[in-house]
Amino acid sequence: MRRPTLLALLLAALPVFASGDARQLVQQAEQAYANGDHKLALALYDSAHATSTSAGLLYNIGNCYSKLGDVPHAILYYERALRLSPGAEDVQANLDLERTRLVDRVSQLPGFTLGSAWDRLRGGKDVDQWARRSLWACAIMALAAAGGLATRKPGLRRALYGVAAAAAVATVTSTALAAYRVQEATTSSEAIIMAPSAEILGEPRKGATRLFILHQGTKVGLMGTEGDWREVRLANGSVGWMPAAQIEEI
Predict the structure, then answer these.
(1) What pLDDT does residue 107 have?
(2) DSSP character for 220?
(3) What is the pLDDT of residues 87-126, one digit of tens each?
(4) Is the distance from CB of 61 to CB of 42 less than 8 angstroms?
(5) E strands within the chain?
(6) 158 by DSSP, 3-state: which?
(7) Helix or strand or coil: residue 222?
(8) Cβ neighbours around 231 below 10 Å, total
(9) Are 122 and 181 in contact (CB under 8 A)?
């Protein structure tokens, strides 16, 4: 398993914690993890996670579950970390490793993708990165426009208006990406199967025709809901119903 240095993990996790107690919990968890006490590290990380979160913290929780041999929970937390930090190579590497331990091998439908480069571009270092960039771009636009109005030099005025126009485009683009990231990070559209095995049925009721069986750790897309049942979709396009209690949303 690929693991960043202790310092890198602390730097990834600490910025989001507002309280000294949470920082102390993370430091204690790091020490417990380094000592090989993964159960204690997990408990401490969970306590910190109760008040706030980050991709680094979710990644650390996933590492604890991996060390404890809990594959479905390790996958769940690696997936959650990737939602906050798409394209994170360490997270993706550990997720791919855990997936090799799964019973199910679901082929993905062919489709166009820009891959990890797009993931890193849209994801950034945190969910709010594009929102901050949009504010900076908006400020630059306002200052450049004001400078263009104030100056009496035609050449400088044109240059400032050009900067203002470019900043306006950057503002719109950054705002759109910021809205996309917030929706992506807050909308639950996928889940991980937690039950050792789960029957996928043709209808949301007991006794319905069994379509296929899935096992713990498999990722499914979430579609409809009917009572205590969820309609799920696999990466290969297969669709069916299963009890909501057997999955946990990413």
Answers:
(1) 65
(2) E
(3) 788 999 999 999 999 988 776 555 445 555 666 666 666 6
(4) yes
(5) 190-193, 197-201, 210-215, 219-226, 229-233, 239-243, 247-249
(6) helix
(7) strand
(8) 17
(9) yes
